[in-house]
Structure formats: structure tokens, C-alpha cells
Design a protein that fits this description.
heterodimer, A: mainly alpha, 4 strands, globular, B: 328 residues, mainly alpha, two-stranded antiparallel sheet, 14 helices, 2% strand
């Protein structure tokens, strides 16, 4: 029983990190129909910012991390402007090229060997709840993740700009005709997605302190798969999808027999294919989409 | 036919020009031709159906391992991986036969994958093919009954000469062109332009996509055979994410919609990459030596690719074929 509970707690923790990443991707996709592969490099940049500020007080480090990530996110918004009218395939591959470019820059600047982030390592200490042994960071991840997701939901439902974003996500053209400024909405989506990425970074470096050039990329791939599996068309289903893939990864890793564990990826992605075949429009959406053109 | 002339001529010219260069440069030329083969194979599906596939590199992978495993001596294979299935361990064929096997394995695998997956469209299809890529890599890495696992399969005969690379890529280009001009190719193109109208006219989009997917899987398997015979070795990492995205980027940079675009994109990006590679070693440009620090190649390559796509979203060729004058 304790084992099951332990698995569930771990699964929720990984799920909430993926949910933050998924929500960041989903926000931008919603208003721009753009899958930003380079979202992972926001996290990588934030992690390197923490590496460079290791010797400074923690508050400064976190501030620099947020500034770096948000700055990079807003730069991406400007860089992606020519893509607004591009074919979907081009959009997808271009953001990938940007991700490739940023990884190459990180490789050139910091080398292939990992750099260690020492911040917040106290959060790695375990706390016992009954028979459960949970690291502090797990609890913090779940709490902060939940709060951020809630805050984003509030912004989207209770503010003017949130309303405009949801309108743009539903029908960009009509929203524009009704006076929604496209650049404002898109910039705000990138800003929110940057804040989410920076928060995810701070929590991630606690449990994974070794930062390499592909740090964020390794994270963005499963999160992106989760987004599509959950259903890209709505932010809620995309976020849930991200959560689900993190959750499923931990549970599968626990369920598989020891000698089958190397095939975890196979099991996970077979599950992805099955879900896509059964619910092509998304696991957490109601309707099936018509034929798309991508 | 006049639309086929330009890509074939360009490929033949690259083959011819490369054969007059020094040994190390020669390798770059042959490599570019093999990359063009992979990109054309990818184009047969993506260009005609309008559906993105990240999965084609898995067909390159199975083709490459099939061609490699059938041309390496039994003793060596068993020393790498004692658990190998006897039928794979004992198989030993010549260069040409190994390429046939690579195409067959690629085609059959693509067909089996395509039967469930071709029902999907849009991003769902893209992610599903991506899942195929991950699964193929994971299985090839860890199941030592079908290959060397995470070890390098080496001592494969390096039989992809200039002749083989050039003839191979041209053969694939001609097949791609014949398919795109066939009834099936035209029907699939129509269905990607307007799926509703095509369905209304009685087109079975699923079946047409499956045909294209299988053909392009077979061509990708063949390209994998050329690849392993070029390098003389193969690992699972060489035929994974990096290659998948690089080949897709080449196709988009050239222009997704045309064979000419596939050829131009593959050769251009390979060319830029080779130039940067030799610049890292230092090249003399007449008056001054260019010597860029190691590591800048990837940065420059990434920047060039991103910039081309940002400012030419439809690719260099705009996805159009080119007609050579005077060929009717």
C-alpha cells in the first residue's frame, strides 16, 4: 500500500512539472498555432542562469533566472513574427531549428559536460509522512505547480487580456476583427509561457542539478507529446495531457518488471499511439476534429 | 519529363564534380548524395500527402541495420551480440542484395506501421510517427536478438562508392518522380490540397497515404543501406532524433512540395555543413586563412537553417518544380 502511495506521489510530482511545461507550450500554440520546440531552451537558459549566479544570494539567482527566461521568450516572439503566415510544417521545423541553434550556442558557451547548480539543495532532504518518505522538493513542486496553474487559469478567465487570449485561441481572425491586437495577445502568451518555464526551471534544478545543453530539450519532447495526446486545442486538456504523460511515465516505470525497464520508452510511446488512434483529437477533449491539413 | 531533368542533372553533376576531388572532400560529396536520398524518400510521403513524418528515420535505421547485418561475417556478428537470431547471424549476402533487403525491410516496416497510423492527420500524425521513431530506437538499442544493441556495428563493407551513391540517388529520384506523376500520386496530392473535395470525389485518403508511406519507407530503407555502406559502421544514435530533424529541415528549406525542393534543400544544407567543417580545420581563401573555432559549425548551421525558414517559409524553391528549357 505504501509502495502504491509512494508511486502516486512521485507520479504527481513529475506530472506537475510536465504540466507546467505543457501549459507553456499550449499557451503559445493557442494564440499562434505554433508548436514551440525551443520552449525547452527557455528552461536550459534559466538553468544556466542559476549556474552562473551560484555564488550570489539565492534571491538574486532566481531573479536573474526569471529575467533571462522572460527576455528570451520575448525575443522568440519577435523572431517568430515572420512565421505567423507560414505553413504549419515550416513553423514546426523552424522552431526546431531555433532549438538546435540555441543548444549549439549553449554547447559553445558552456561545453558538453554538465554544470552543477547548487541552489536549494536543502529541498532534497526527505520528510516522513507516516511510512512515506517524500522529498521536500516533491511537495514544493506539487504546491507551486498547482498555484501557478491556478493563477494562469485566473488570468485567462478573470482579466481582459485573458479573455482576449481565449478569444484569439478560439478564432484568431474574428478576434482581430473585434479589436483584439494580435501582437499584444501573442506577446502576452510568450510572457506567461516564459514565467511558467522559469518557475519549472527553479523546481527542476533541485532534483536534476546537472545542467547540459540538452537539459530542456529532453523535457520538452515528452511534454509536447503529452500536449498532443491531451488535446492541443484547449489549454486545459493540453496541460492535463502533460500531467498525464509524466504520471504515466512514473507508473509504467514502476509496473514494468526489472528486466523490462529498458523498454519503458517503448511502452510509454505505444500507449501514446494507442491513445492517438482511439482519440485523435485528444484524450481530454470532447469532439473529434475534422481532417486537418498539417 | 522536363521536370525530372533538373534534379537528376544536378545530382549527376554533384556526383561527377565530387569524383574529381581529394579523398576527404570526396567523402563529403558522397555523404551529401546519401542525405539527398533520405530526403527524397521523406519527400515522397511528406511532399505528396502534406502530413509531417518524424518517423522516416526509423525506416532508414532498420534499412541500415538490415544491410549492415547481412554483409558482416557471422563470427563478428556473434561476437558483438551472442543472442542474435540464427537467421540474422547466418545471413550473408553481397552488396546489391543487401540494398534490396534494406528496401524490403523498410517497406514492410512502413506498411505495418502505416496500417494503423495513416488514419491520423495533422499534429496527431506527426506525434504518432515520432512515437514510432522513439520506439524503433528503444527496441534497436535494447533487443540484442535483432542487432548489436547499443554497440557499434562496424566492419561493414564500404561499398557506397561514387558510382553507387550517384546511381542510387538518381534511381530514387526517378521513382519518386514516377510516383508523383502516377494516378496515385496525383490523387494523394489532390487530397492534401482539399481533403473534403477529394473524399467527395471518391478518393480513399487512408489507402492513398498508406501507398505513399510504404513506398517512401522502402526508399528510406534503401537510403539506410547506402548510409551504412558509406560509413562502414552504424550506431542507433546516428539514426535518431538529430538525423530525423536535420532531414526534415532540409526538406522544408528546399521546399516541401517538390522533388526539386527536396534535392536542392538536401544538397544546400549538406554543402553549407561541409564548408563549415573544412573551415573549422582552416581553409585558405587566397589572401587570408579562414579558421573558425570548433563548435561554431553547429551554431552557424542552426542560424542559417532558421533564417532561411523564417524568411522563405515556403522553401527556396517555393515548393515548385523547375522546367529546363528545350525539353518540352
Amino acid at each position: 500500500m505504501t509502495d502504491v502511495l509512494q508511486t502516486i506521489v512521485d507520479a504527481i510530482a513529475l506530472g506537475s512539472v510536465y504540466a507546467l511545461v505543457a501549459m507553456g507550450i499550449g499557451l503559445v500554440f493557442g494564440v499562434m498555432r505554433l508548436v514551440n520546440f525551443a520552449h525547452g531552451e527557455l528552461i536550459t537558459a534559466g538553468a544556466y542562469a542559476l549556474v552562473l549566479t551560484n555564488h550570489l544570494p539565492l534571491v538574486v539567482g532566481i531573479a536573474v533566472c526569471f529575467a533571462t527566461v522572460i527576455g528570451l521568450a520575448l525575443t522568440m516572439e519577435v523572431a517568430y513574427r515572420p512565421l505567423r503566415t507560414a505553413p504549419p510544417t515550416t513553423m514546426l521545423v523552424t522552431t526546431f531549428a531555433v532549438s538546435f541553434l540555441l543548444q549549439a550556442v549553449a554547447l559553445l558557451a558552456f561545453g558538453a559536460r554538465g554544470k552543477n547548480v547548487g541552489v536549494l539543495s536543502k529541498l532534497n532532504e526527505p520528510v516522513s509522512i507516516g511510512d512515506l518518505r517524500v522529498r521536500w522538493v516533491t511537495l514544493v513542486s506539487i504546491a507551486v505547480g498547482g498555484m501557478l496553474l491556478g493563477a494562469t487559469a485566473l488570468i485567462l478567465t478573470r482579466t481582459d487580456i485573458g479573455l482576449q487570449m481565449r478569444a484569439a485561441a478560439m478564432d484568431f481572425r474574428t478576434a482581430q476583427l473585434l479589436g483584439v491586437r494580435s501582437t499584444t495577445v501573442i506577446r502576452f502568451a510568450f510572457l506567461l509561457s516564459g514565467i511558467l518555464a522559469a518557475s519549472a526551471t527553479v523546481m527542476l534544478v533541485v532534483s536534476r542539478p546537472l545542467v547540459t545543453p540538452s537539459y530542456g530539450f529532453q523535457l520538452v519532447i515528452p511534454a509536447l507529446v503529452g500536449v498532443v495526446v491531451g488535446g492541443m486545442d484547449r489549454l486545459g486538456s493540453a496541460t492535463l495531457g502533460g500531467f498525464a504523460i509524466g504520471f504515466a511515465a512514473v507508473v509504467l516505470g514502476d509496473v514494468l518488471p526489472a528486466d523490462g525497464r529498458v523498454f519503458l520508452e517503448t511502452a510509454l510511446f505505444l500507449l501514446v499511439i494507442v491513445v492517438l488512434l482511439v482519440r485523435p483529437g485528444g484524450l481530454f477533449t470532447r469532439s473529434r476534429p475534422a481532417w486537418e491539413r498539417v | 519529363m522536363s521536370q525530372l531533368a533538373a534534379p537528376v542533372l544536378l545530382l549527376a553533376l554533384v556526383g561527377l564534380a565530387g569524383s574529381f576531388t581529394s579523398r576527404s572532400v570526396q567523402f563529403q560529396f558522397r555523404f551529401a548524395l546519401v542525405m539527398a536520398t533520405i530526403v527524397i524518400a521523406l519527400y515522397v510521403f511528406v511532399g505528396n500527402s502534406g502530413v509531417v513524418s518524424f518517423g522516416h528515420v526509423s525506416f532508414v535505421a532498420v534499412g541500415g541495420f538490415a544491410a549492415g547485418l547481412t554483409t558482416v561475417p557471422e563470427a563478428l556478428k556473434l561476437s558483438l551480440s551472442p543472442d542474435l537470431f540464427p537467421v540474422i547471424a547466418s545471413a550473408e549476402v553481397g552488396n546489391a542484395m543487401s540494398l534490396v533487403i534494406a528496401s524490403a525491410v523498410g517497406g514492410v516496416f512502413a506498411f505495418l506501421v502505416g496500417v494503423p497510423l495513416m488514419r491520423l492527420s495533422g499534429l496527431a500524425a506527426g506525434i504518432a510517427t515520432f512515437a514510432v521513431l522513439v520506439i524503433t530506437n528503444n527496441v534497436l538499442r535494447n533487443w540484442e536478438a535483432i542487432g548489436p544493441g547499443a554497440r557499434t556495428l562496424s566492419l561493414v563493407p564500404e561499398s557506397t562508392s561514387f558510382m553507387q551513391a550517384t546511381v542510387g540517388v538518381i534511381a530514387v529520384a526517378v521513382l519518386a518522380f514516377l510516383y508523383q506523376r502516377s494516378r496515385w500520386g496525383r490523387v494523394l496530392r489532390a487530397s492534401s490540397e482539399d481533403p473534403f473535395a477529394a473524399q467527395g470525389a471518391g478518393v480513399n485518403i487512408y489507402r492513398q497515404r498508406l501507398v505513399a508511406f510504404t513506398l517512401s519507407g522502402a526508399l528510406a530503407g534503401f537510403a539506410g543501406g547506402l548510409f551504412v555502406h558509406l560509413l562502414g559502421s552504424i550506431t542507433t544514435e546516428q539514426v535518431y532524433l538529430d538525423l530525423a530533424f536535420l532531414t526534415l529541415a532540409m526538406l522544408v528549406i528546399g521546399g516541401v512540395g517538390s522533388l526539386w525542393g527536396a534535392v536542392v534543400g538536401a544538397l544546400l544544407v549538406s554543402g553549407v555543413n561541409s564548408l563549415l567543417l573544412s573551415a573549422e580545420d582552416g581553409i585558405g581563401l587566397g589572401f587570408f586563412d579562414v579558421n573558425v573555432p570548433t563548435g561554431t559549425r553547429l551554431v552557424t548551421l542552426g542560424a542559417v537553417m532558421a533564417l532561411i525558414m523564417l524568411f522563405r517559409p515556403s522553401g527556396i524553391t517555393g515548393g515548385r518544380e523547375i522546367r529546363l528549357p528545350g525539353l518540352g
